[in-house]
């Protein structure tokens, strides 16, 4: 109940009443005890707040969201209004957490929370479900365009640089959207649908959004759960294969190397691309034995071809962030070289620019150790990460690979031409080899050659080939060279 203080002002009071009875059980009196309830009420409110809010970001947590969603559902159904549930998952957050540690990850999450709140209206609800998963509830939406505007604003805001201590970090977000009442009428189903749509956004290349649609449901159930289970058996059942994409010297037209690209030959689903299963393998740790298999298979296969007389000057193998640990990687590489007899200088390890830059100190040490083994190191997707030039100069690198996204825009996009040329000049100044990825047209090849780019790979020359097809290609080239054709 509410009571009034003597000096004025209301306060919450607790009134407890008990009856006093005589020996015949008749009520003779009542005892009323008043107590000031202010402190207890404050503690209760504090506990309620703690139970419903995320301690790190101050946003609603899962349980708070649950309650808010229940209230919004009631309002929306009584007033016949629609609302949208956005499920947001950060891209590459795990890499930052794994490489720079949880403190840095936590600071980044706080900024993400601020950016989300800063880009929605005050009455919209922002929550953190845990890890790098957030939700936003947008009430009273009438057109999808309204939602798209907010979502695009959020994606832009998330993609801006994060300054955490001395680190300049970049992450993006993938957003799934489900609509009430269009996609579901219940909270749990709305959440599930938005989650499925978010996975679809990830599959489409991340840093994008997707509205839920019914056909996503089936595909998602098949893809994620089943793939995860089946991947566990893929290695031992020998369902993994290495395919090889040739790289050519742009000046001589000669084979300059091969990039090894993993494939999964699933008995029912057919050939599965690495973009679908490498993220799963990275999540569940299977990437470590898979990466080991790739290294061994690549070294052995290429050494066999070299022994058969085919000139394969270089073989490039992709590394995942989880393999990039000094104890693990050096051991794996040394063993693969010993087992195959492949000369170390033929093996080039491709690491992404962001992997190196987010763990620069450790990366420098590992790269130096690899150098001592004699293997080469290439930076993959160069131009998409955030290398500072002074850091780049200190890294013991051999090759820069110009990311496919820049080559794609050549010749139409003037910016892309300038970026590609700048990378070629930079590589030359630093004494590094440079390989253009994803060359699809003759025009791209010629422009790159005129820029002085040393090597290229892409569909213009050849798609990745199975070991059998590549071998046929090698035999064919060898015969041409020896004049048999
Ligand atoms: N549109 C277009 N695409 C082209 C062209 N030329 C090559 N590509 C594709 O571009 C990707 C190049 O590989 P990446 O950037 O290292 O990107 C790779 C790499 O990051 C990862 N990956 C592949 N194999 C392995 C592996 O053995 N270990 C690890 N950790 N990651 C791998 O999966 C990614 C995707 O591999 P793929 O699906 O094989 O896709 C390959 C290749 O098939 C072109 O002209 N046009």
From TrEMBL:
InterPro entries: Biofilm_reg_signaling, EAL_dom, EAL_sf, GGDEF_dom, Nucleotide_cyclase, PAS-assoc_C, PAS-like_dom_sf, Rev_trsase/Diguanyl_cyclase. Residues 224-478 form the EAL domain. It comes from the Bacteria. SMART domains: EAL, GGDEF. Residues 1-49 form the PAC domain. Gene3D superfamilies: 3.30.70.270, EAL domain (3.20.20.450), PAS domain (3.30.450.20). Residues 81-214 form the GGDEF domain. SUPFAM superfamilies: EAL domain-like, Nucleotide cyclase, PYP-like sensor domain (PAS domain). This is EAL domain-containing protein.
């Amino acid at each position: 109940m509410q009571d009034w203080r003597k000096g004025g002002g209301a306060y919450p009071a607790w009134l407890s009443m008990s009856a006093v009875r005589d020996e015949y059980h008749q009520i003779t009196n009542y005892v009323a005890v008043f107590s000031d309830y202010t402190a207890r009420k404050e503690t209760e409110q504090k506990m309620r707040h703690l139970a419903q809010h995320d301690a790190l970001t101050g946003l609603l947590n899962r349980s708070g969201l649950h309650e808010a969603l229940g209230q919004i559902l009631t309002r929306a159904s009584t007033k016949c209004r629609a609302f949208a549930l956005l499920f947001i998952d950060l891209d590459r957050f795990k890499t930052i957490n794994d490489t720079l540690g949880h403190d840095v990850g936590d600071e980044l999450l706080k900024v993400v929370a601020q950016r989300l709140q800063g880009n929605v209206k005050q009455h919209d609800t922002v929550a953190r479900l845990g890890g790098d998963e957030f939700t936003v509830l947008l009430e009273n939406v009438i057109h999808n365009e309204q939602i798209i505007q907010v979502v695009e604003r959020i994606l832009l805001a998330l993609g801006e640089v994060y300054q955490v201590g001395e680190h300049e970090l970049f992450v993006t977000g993938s957003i799934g959207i489900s609509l009430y009442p269009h996609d579901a009428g219940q909270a749990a189903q709305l959440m599930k649908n938005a989650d499925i749509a978010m996975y679809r956004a990830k599959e489409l290349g991340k840093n994008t959004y997707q509205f839920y649609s019914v056909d996503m449901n089936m595909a998602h159930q098949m893809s994620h759960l089943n793939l995860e289970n089946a991947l566990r058996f893929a290695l031992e059942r020998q369902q993994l294969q290495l395919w090889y994409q040739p790289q050519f010297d742009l000046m001589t037209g000669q084979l300059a190397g091969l990039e090894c690209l993993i494939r999964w030959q699933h008995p029912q689903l057919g050939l599965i691309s690495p973009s679908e299963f490498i993220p799963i393998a990275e999540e569940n740790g299977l990437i470590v034995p898979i990466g080991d298999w790739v290294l061994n298979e690549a070294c052995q296969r290429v050494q066999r071809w070299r022994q058969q007389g085919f000139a394969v000057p270089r073989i490039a193998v992709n590394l995942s962030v989880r393999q990039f640990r000094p104890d693990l990687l050096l051991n794996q590489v040394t063993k693969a070289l010993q087992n195959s007899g492949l000369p170390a200088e033929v093996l080039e390890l491709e690491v992404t620019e962001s992997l190196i830059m987010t763990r620069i100190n450790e990366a420098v040490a590992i790269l130096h150790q690899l150098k001592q083994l004699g293997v080469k190191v290439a930076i993959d997707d160069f131009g998409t990460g955030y290398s500072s030039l002074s850091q780049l100069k200190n890294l013991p690198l051999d090759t820069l690979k110009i990311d496919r996204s820049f080559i794609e825009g050549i010749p139409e996009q003037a910016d892309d031409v300038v970026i590609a040329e700048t990378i070629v000049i930079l590589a030359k100044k630093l004494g590094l080899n440079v390989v253009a990825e994803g060359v699809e047209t003759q025009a791209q090849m010629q422009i790159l050659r005129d820029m002085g780019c040393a090597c290229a790979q892409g569909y213009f020359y050849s798609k990745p080939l199975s070991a059998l097809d590549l071998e046929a290609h090698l035999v064919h080239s060898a015969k041409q060279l020896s004049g048999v054709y």
